[in-house]
Amino acid sequence: MAEDFVKQLFDFINGSAEHHLKSAENLKGFLTFVANMQSNVTVSNKILAYGYNPNATDIHTKEEWEQSGITVQDENAVIYNLQHSPDRKQKYVERVMYDISSTNATPHSFERFPDAGFFAERLIISAPCPIRYKVGPISGSRKACFDAEKGIIEVTHGFRDEEQACHGLLREFAHFYLCENEHRDKRGKAEKTKPYERDKHGVEAQAVSYAVCVRYGINPPEIDVLSPPEGEAEDKRRILEGLDYSIFRISQRIEESGRQQRRFLSEEAGENQSGGRTQERG
User: For residues 84 and 95, what is the distance between their CA atoms, to the nearest angstrom?
Assistant: First the structure.
């Protein structure tokens, strides 16, 4: 019976992955959910959580909540996830989760930036690879472009506003991580890694830019009309995994840069106060 339920969960994941990639609007809905999700669970488990509660933002087991001193108040609001089984006879088993909205804890959110200019500054110091200014046009009349061979992002003048600069930088950060994820998936395999084909990942890069903007309160870019990808369910899950991986890695860098900035400003303020008191004593 348990195996039948696990199969139902996998069937739901496969059907949902296809649904989320059928249109730009479907994808936006799932991306908004991912953008607001605090828990670092697999993309398959995010698909399940979205199906159970599209407003979920932070999911854990009852035991995990209790270890943090938090009480689950609505035990009927179950969200099923999957985890590896300790029993070799079965690869996966279901796991009962609860969203923070079903507990007595106060939900929290990601940092919100006051404007696109401030966000663009954070992005520049959060870049996953060197950014180089290029005089003259960039391939395809782009204002920014990740060069997979050089491992750099080239930028040129021409962004009409700070919001457009944010969208362009995020798109290229996405290409960096989509490329990294593609190579990461192929590690250990016999075939030679093929060069990164950015044109195949154009809509995916836009989708990552969209989700990261939603996460941090910046007006997101549009996503071009999505052509439903062909292939097996695993191929479609792999696309969503690449998106999720890129969103997570970009967010990691943005948040770490923020912590470093706050630490620097705090230390600088402390030094200024110390210097002021020393002068007064003198």
Answer: 10
**Residues 6 or more apart from 80 whose CB is under 8 A from it?**
9, 48, 52, 94, 95, 96, 97
d(CA 134, CA 32): 34
* pLDDT for residue 186: 58
Confidence tier at 94 by pLDDT (50, 70, 90): very high
Q: Are 124 and 39 in contact (CB under 8 A)?
A: no
Q: At what angle do helices 116-125 and 233-281 cross, to 10 degrees?
A: 100
pLDDT of 189 higher than 90? no
For the cut 90, the answer to whether the pLDDT of residue 275 exceeds it is no
* 47-72 residue pLDDT tens: 999 999 999 999 999 999 999 999 99
Rounded to the nearest 10 degrees, what angle do helices 233-281 and 2-20 cross at? Answer: 80
Asked whether the CA dihedral 121, 141, 167, 233 is positive or negative, the reply is negative
Distance CA 131, CA 236 (A): 31
Q: Any idea what the Cα angle at residue 280 is, between residues 275 and 282, rounded to 5°?
A: 95
**Residues 125/142/181/93 CA torsion (nearest 10 deg):** 100
End-to-end CA distance of the chain: 80
Pair type for strands 92-99 and 59-60: antiparallel
The answer to whether the Cα torsion of 68, 72, 75, 77 is positive or negative is negative
In one letter, which amino acid is 3? E
Tokens standing for residue 196:
């990164």
Rounded CA-CA distance 228/20 in Å is 9
Does residue 188 contact residue 195 with C-beta atoms inside 8 Å?
Answer: no
| For residue 251, pLDDT beyond 50 | yes
Question: 96: which strand partners?
Answer: 80
